[in-house]
Amino acid sequence: MIIYSSLEAEHTSIPLIVTVSDSTEILNVDSTSNNSKNNDNNDADNTDINTITKSIVSTFSANPPVLALTRAQLLALLEYVKTNMLPSYLSHLAKSTQATSVGAKTPSVSASSVTPNNTSPTSVPLIPAPDPQAFLIGSLHTGLFSLLQQSGSYTISDPIPNIRVHRFDDPPYYKYFFRRSDFSPEAESGRSADLPFADLSLPPGYRFHDREGREGVLSKHLDLVQSRTHIPRPRTQLSKIPGMAVYLDSTPSDADEMPIAWGFLGVDGALVTLHVEPEHRGRGLAVPLSKAIMRRGMAVDGVFGAGSVNSEYSQTRERVGAWAHTEVAGYNNASRRVMEKIGGQVLTTVTWTVIELLD
């Protein structure tokens, strides 16, 4: 379920965010909860996290009656989901668990076809699944989250009655927005349709396709992709969302060629799972890769392009695909710098939170 609100555009207030200085790419842009409050997976050894002194949080500047109405509408939405949608979801989970138990007693012929993403020594531990009775809400405006706190403060966890907050991100995520001119300038609109990424210069020795000329992340690469992110992303989802990959020229011709960097546009059009393998970081791969991903998804014939909209109004079609976005942890200066180089602007802050509506 994806919910939109005009309140964010009309009443968002955010302090000035200073741009970050050049730094080495430590890329794995993904919405995460590793820095969440009430989360046992906090990385105590992460210097960037521990040096945070003050969070930048966007709020709503609306008057009290508007905020009260917004809180009531948000609670009504949660109540509706719990009453009308949660029962069928819990029933589905129960049936899936039962089917898994039966399958474990009678294993299939190809038991090795499903590989957990933590089998590799370089795999990243997955974020624990939320309580089935709770709601995982992604990209929630920090102003909306604050309305669920008695204090009205984002950083002080004192939920209003009948609300239990299992976890939220502190500091929150900076939401970067990119105009089409940032990732696909109009001046380049005359480029060959057969070579849509020709103007995106990768460093010598790197390319946007494998030895056979295939672009994007191939199905045989998805195990690798899953092993590098702690966000549980099913193979079926990764195979359907637009993505791009970078390959290395020096890979032996007789070897199974694997990408050294990749990324996708998620189900809401956000740049996600942007990753560069450690030995290839700091070489200027992230910016052209990010632009290529946005172009692929936002192109006229892309998943989020004008061709996907059934509208007779030219103005509406022109607006489709005009913006891309992503979310970066406030402490991740390397990834923030990449987004700034592309031209992204922080217009709001968001959190990925797990909330339970109590009886």
Structure keywords:
359 residues, alpha+beta, 11-stranded mixed sheet, two-stranded antiparallel sheet, globular
| Sheet with most strands | 11 strands, mixed
Task: Label the overall shape.
Answer: globular
Percent of residues in helices comes to 25-40%
Q: Given the helix and strand composition, which structural class is it?
A: alpha+beta
Strand content: 15-25%
Mean pLDDT: 80
Low-confidence stretches: 39-53, 106-119
Q: Quaternary status of these chains?
A: single chain
What value does the Rg take, in angstroms? Answer: 22 Å
Return the string of H and E elements: HEEEHEHHEHEEHEHHEEEHHEHE
Say how many strands there are: 13
Number of helices: 11
Cα(first) to Cα(last) distance is: 23 Å
Tell me what you see in this structure.
About 25% of the residues lie in helices and about 20% in strands. It is globular, with a radius of gyration of 22 Å. The strands form 2 sheets. Strands 2, 3, 5, 6, 7, 8, 9, 10, 11, 12 and 13 form an 11-stranded mixed sheet that branches. Strands 1-4 form a two-stranded antiparallel sheet. About 30% of the residues are buried. By secondary structure, the protein is an alpha+beta fold. It has helices at about 5-10, 45-50, 65-85, 85-105, 140-145, 180-185, 220-225, 235-240, 285-300, 315-320, 335-340, and strands at about 10-15, 30, 35, 60, 135-140, 165-170, 175-180, 205, 245-250, 260-265, 270-275, 325-330, 345-355.
